[in-house]
Fold these 3 entries.
Entry 1:
Amino acid sequence: MPYIQENMDYKEQQTQEIEALQAIYQEEELAVVCDEYPNISLRVNLKSNQEDECDSDFEITLVIELPEKYPDVIPRISLEGVDHLFSEERIQKTVESLENEATNNLGMVMVFSIVSALQEEMGTLLEEKKKEAERKVEEEKEKAEAIARKKFEGTPVTPETFLAWKARFDKERSAQVEKKQKEREAALAGRLTGKQLFLKDATLSLSDVALIEQSVEIDESLFDEEIDGLELDSDED
């Protein structure tokens, strides 16, 4: 009988605590996964910032499983939804702080105290997340400035860097010469040279000869008249 009475006390305490939590938290904040004793479990969804929103805000789900002899035994505690935001060590550290809070409240219903402790811890996590974001921004800024300085300062010339540059330069120049040669050959493709035209059309070689051999009649009287005119002019003088 004492054992049965003891279990009835645990069950009653757990049931009453769940009812009290449902009166405190809204439905979207508290979900009773199982309400069957001795396997009662619940999930509490919390936001890092209840007032002002910022880029570093995050949500976290507190999972609590009540053992048979709770609250004389601390509940099993785990966190979900933050694996991609914080390191495994940081999450474990937070869970341990919640377990310490539960240990300090042994013998009393403690879910509300655990949730309150997590809300305070989330404030610390939020500040850490903000500082981490600021640190990353500063790192990116420093990297960009370093790259800009390197471009401005240039690369020191050494025998090795000069030979590497010359090899690239010669390769690029050779490629350009080859490209221009191909373009020139493409432009001349299909066009015959003067020699090729001469050999292709034999009539071209005879054209000048034909012109020379062609008979031309000359009217000699035209020259006589011009000469007579010149003589007359001479006599008048």
Entry 2:
Amino acid sequence: MSALIELVGVSVFLGGRLVVEEISLAIERVQIVALLGPNGAGKTTLMRAALGLAPIEFGAAQLMGDDPMLLSARARALRAAYLPQRPQSIWPINVEHLVALGRFAHGAAPDRLSPPDQAAVDAALEACALTPLRARRMDEISGGEKARAHLARALAQHAPLLVLDEPTAGLDPAQALSVADILTRHAASSGAVLFSTHDVALAARIAHQVVLLREGRVISTGAPREALTPQSLEAAYARKGRLEQIGDTLVAVFD
């Protein structure tokens, strides 16, 4: 099975500073990969480099077999839906129109949706529990609802790969678990997910692979139980930590 994203020895400099150092990673369909690490570990830069949005100094990246730096914005959007940290909607559009922007790469506009485009928007609204809010303006809903609206826009894009920068930041536990369920369903439907998070327990819960970073370097990588050892957690966060099993759920405990 060919990888949707493949990074080989990728290093990135920003402002003359090395922020990602010789990282290799491959993500295939039905996989969920979580990037973990403290602030400044290089998670966002690594995701942007994988999409051709940050320059790679050394190494190489491929997005579904092509150099992402050489892809047009539309071609990239048909392969990967990217949700940055704290996305903004600068116009007072309603929720449905924001979600419909995900169809732009398919040639649609929010006020000119074909039946397939409308079906994609409806499905994304339903998946994110936003159908009752579809007519509400973005400046009239809560922060958590805004986060779900932006996630719905990414889902409506119908790209096989979701690349999400801290998609559960600022969400309450119930909303975060709902997002986790959405990501799991996307991967199970022959998609793939690459996301960053500070929620170690969430990564352990849904990711097939975690990549634990510190200062642009990989501390450990692999299945959560293998990669998130007490030694690797302390190396990454400079605090003693461990995974514990409570019922059917893995939780992260830091001392």
Entry 3:
Amino acid sequence: MDGTVLNSEIMYHKMIKQICDKYNKKYPKDLQIKLYGETDKAICTTVVRELKLPVSPDEFERQMNELAQKVLPGAPLLKGAERLLTHLHDHKILMALATNATEQAVRLQATARPKLFGLFHHKVSVTDPEVFRGKPQPDIYLVAASRFPDKPKPRECLVFEDSAVGVLAAKEAGMQVVMIPDSRLDRDQTRQATLVIKTLLEFKPELFGLPPFQDGPRPMERVEKIKET
């Protein structure tokens, strides 16, 4: 969700920076990259520890959740996200949202964009009772796959990710992964993805046996196997 459908990663960084500013602590870019794709709890624990903040991780998370109520509903859509989701939905391709974000964060953003989030068959967050471990563990994706009516095998599922921990989670689940990485990520962190693209506007559904965009470029060879790593 964050970094694939919505540009909410930048919102999280702004919230973290705002809290750090209260304690006269800088929030460096190398730490931002380190936290990319992590759960809220992991983010808060790491920030408090690395920056030696005079608050507990729980208090930091409380402040972040308070800011999220105002900030997250305004997260802008990423390029190509609405086009892809609408296209797949129109062709009756079932989709699930599987995210390291909390159920509260999902609800905040879904309330702001009910039509868009309504395109998903179901949503699975890191706080779902059936998810015992967040990404990079595969739990979220395996739970999401199990809730489709036809119970697809992992190799029949296609994941869209923007973070290295998310790609690892999908690969551990046995799924193919299209990665749309942040430009600041090291290239080594993208190597496990089946396919790497700059934006969803570059995605060609026919590569994975999906209906092509009518306004898209010439079809290319279909990707039939998970890339060996």
